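Need tokens for this chain, all 677 residues.
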Amino acid sequence: MNKQFKLVLLTILVGLFLASNLLANNGATPQLPLEYFVKLSDARSVKISPDGKHLVVIYKKDGRDLFAILDSQTMNPISAIGVRGSGGSVGQVFWANNERLVYTVTKSSGSNKTTYSTGELFGVNVDGSKHTIIFGYRSGEKQTGTRLKKKKADYGNHEIIDYLEGDERHILISFYPWKLFGNVWRQNPTAIPTIQKLNIYSGKMKKVGYLPSAGARAITDSEGAVRFSVAVDKNNERVIHYKKNNESEWELFSLDTLTGSSFQPVRFSKDDGRIYFSADVDGGTNALYSLNLKDKSIVKIFHDEKVDIANYMFDFSRRQIVAVYTQLNLPKYHYIDKSDPKAKLHQQLMQAFAGSDVVLTSATSDGGKMIAFVYSGNNPGDYYLFDTKTLAADYIISQSSWVDPNHLSTIEPIEYVTRDEVTIHGYLTRPKNSQGKKLPTVVLPHGGPHGVRDYWQYDWEVQLLANRGYAVLQVNFRGSGGFGETHLKAGYGKWGTLMQDDITDATRWLVKQGIADPRRICIYGTSYGGYAALMGSVREPDLYQCAIGSAGVYDLPMLYEEGDIAKYSLSGVAFLKDAVGENKEDLRSRSPVHNVKKIKANLLIVHGARDERAPIEQAESLKDALDKVNKPYEWLEMGNEGHGYYDVNNRIKVYAKILEFLDKNIGKNSTSQASGK
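Here are the structure tokens for all 677 residues:
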């Protein structure tokens, strides 16, 4: 290892952690530089090896992600691994055994800063030796004309199904073939995935089965046998298949004794006699069940009528569910087996880090050591090495070392009642040390929208706006995920109507509470949020002084003609019919493009020229419509960005423009502020 790298890594591990103290200002809240918020994280995804001797840390250097392997006792670096070639970065890293790691690769380019997975897998030893590609389109060996069989390139992407405990040389993956669309390779939406046993040293693969449906995801039992398949068909319906054992044929799976819907297998029990699964209860939130695979008897383990299960905590064997995680307002753990050692330890950590959430990211095989990720609404997160015997938690590294939580705002859970008497949950972030009343306010609807929701977590964009003096309102309007099937499907076909009314009601509620200044409210969002921002200005022309649409959808009929949802997904068209609707006149009536005459708010439109989800044609159609009615607007097009802004310099440009726009419309330099209204 060269000295330069060792110095860089030690700076990350020790020196950068001190940066959070540099901004202390005698208790005052400083206006932090824009770079403070838009800068990409120092480190992420810290994991411990099965034997506990090593740690792997993904860290950033010169804008690219690399990973380092550290001695867990001394924290000294042993090796550093990066991706060769321009724009290449490390994606995710996994311990395959005590000596070998497997990692994925991401790619971006000068013409398109969007980061995407290449579908490849690489393997490398702890000391950096035997570093080789083991899966992907570049993995083929050169053919020499001999009769020796050479490895062919794998034109497709993968999903790791099982690490095959007890087998030190193989992992199990599902292989999803690509198809050429024009001059671009993409996953073939109709291809049947195969199950492959992959040698993590040589890259040799052996086909051991297949999945019965295109795009299916697999679930294995404790022996590594694929027994469940979950897919979505062309009608946007979930399809479940099951195998009684590894040698059996696939068969459709159904449960006549289950009154709920949306059956989702989670994990086999230790003895493989039961399967944990979730399902919606009577159209409401989901519950956790246990199914006896022999007699089909079902036991309900956990159910919260107000909020869905968001995640699970497994015991050290990774087979038994010992806790369920929900987030109605704040993170909450429901310990199913309070006597389980891991559950006990987690409860202790939650008490030790009161006011934060604690996520156990990895553990040794014997459960002796764990990695704990501790975060909160104003802390991006810190990693700790926790010894389960001594109960010592040693700091490793921060995800964003320069961030000082003391300078950032608290995220407050809120709930309000809509005009039709439905309770909606969300979050309010007020500027730190403000009076909390009559504040200029940014209403920030989330993207998605279906299945997506806002959480209590660190959000740099929210903190940036709060640091500039704005209250920020986030709403889990109907159509959002996380609050049950009824809440989710209530938004189907209601873009711009019911879903928009939920946002409007939240905004008016905030005004009624005396928190939002009614003369200084802006609505801003990205993706669906961009749509909601513009439709908010259409539907409530006197409520918002300004609106910002970023990477938004503005012409609903165009969703069927442009973009990757309808073009490249098996269920894409069916999803659009369910979620948006298909009556063209109705779609036009709910499209900002066809309603620009109703808009009074000042507008800013930001879009990436390389956007495939909401192509630039969406923004251009809005631009043309505004020009036809002589409605002024501000425009910012990012030529080398897609659906979002991935390059730090581009982020600086985008958010400098957004902050300038907000300032002159509802901020310190706005007309209403200057006139004292």
